[in-house]
Design a protein that fits this description.
This protein is of the alpha/beta class. The chain is 28% helix and 12% strand.
């Protein structure tokens, strides 16, 4: 049996996971999440069929309860307690997937890294690829054995509204938006009511769906990702902050950037759910301006 990927490797294949489902210290998380408008119950779908041994990671439940912003990072002690209750310990290799393929699992991947646990990877292609290959599924609730987990917030992975506002003046970091192009340009309404249309001034746009190969449902190759980001106007020598509607698909871009060799990447947790509220945060519409 091949050795597990090194700590910090951001992707694993379905072949690797199938060979390591019973390996000590490999823990599998289903981090499926749907927008309310989709009217789908992620936990119910988990109960109906999931990767054997997986536990359900609820992005909305493992979140800061003191804000009305969606699924913001919780305090470290709350994250540690929630993860330990799911049977995940400090020495475990965590593999995360979702039922859409590569949509919400990267948010859980980023969250673990933000809390100092780098031994986490995303299942490339997710549950759809696992199903297509005829691999086994389990049903019903999980029964994890509680473990001990330590969480320490690493702020290098996280940006706040104040950080992004300050960056408007400094221009130190490049902001990359994962929303569909029409929403980025302000031509299509946001799915959350009450938000303005447009984007953070000066930001670029790579819709998160563009980093996935439509033929396979897996992440594009590193060279193709690097070319995609270059075409969007990202300079190779400046850090990147990813953003989206509420901090979920921004993590898809963070994952893709990591695979492409860019490790100077943070995520704006509040994203457009925070920046786009009525107020004094400046908003641009139209296409991003490419650097001259």
């Amino acid at each position: 049996m091949d050795a597990p990927p090194r700590t910090g490797t951001p992707l694993v294949t379905t072949e690797w996971l199938a060979a390591h489902l019973d390996a000590p210290h490999v823990r599998v998380l289903d981090a499926t999440w749907f927008l309310p408008a989709e009217r789908r119950d992620a936990h119910a779908e988990f109960l109906a069929g999931h990767v054997p041994g997986a536990v359900f990671f609820d992005i909305d439940a493992v979140a800061d309860r003191t804000t009305d912003l969606p699924h913001m990072l919780p305090p470290p002690e709350e994250f540690a307690a929630a993860v330990a209750a799911l049977g995940i310990g400090d020495d475990d290799r965590v593999v995360v997937y979702d039922a859409q393929g590569l949509v919400t699992a990267p948010r859980a991947w980023w969250t673990f890294r933000a809390f100092g646990h780098d031994d986490v990877a995303v299942l490339d292609g997710g549950l759809p690829k696992w199903r297509r290959e005829g691999r086994p599924l389990a049903t019903g609730p999980a029964a994890p054995v509680p473990a001990r987990f330590t969480a320490r917030l690493d702020r290098a992975h996280v940006r706040t509204l104040a950080d992004v506002r300050a960056n408007l003046a400094s221009g130190r970091e490049q902001v990359l938006d994962a929303r569909p192009a029409a929403r980025f340009r302000g031509e299509a309404p946001e799915p959350r009511p009450g938000l303005r249309a447009g984007h953070v001034p000066g930001s670029r746009n790579v819709p998160f769906t563009d980093v996935v190969d439509p033929a396979t449902g897996t992440l594009r190759a590193p060279a193709a990702l690097a070319a995609l980001f270059a075409a969007a106007g990202l300079a190779p020598d400046r850090p990147v902050v990813t953003t989206c509607g509420s901090g979920v698909t921004a993590a898809v871009l963070a994952l893709a950037l990591d695979v492409a060799g860019r490790h100077d990447v943070a995520l704006y947790d509040g994203s457009w759910a925070e920046w786009g509220r009525p107020g004094d945060t400046p908003v641009e519409t139209g296409d991003a301006v490419r650097p001259g």
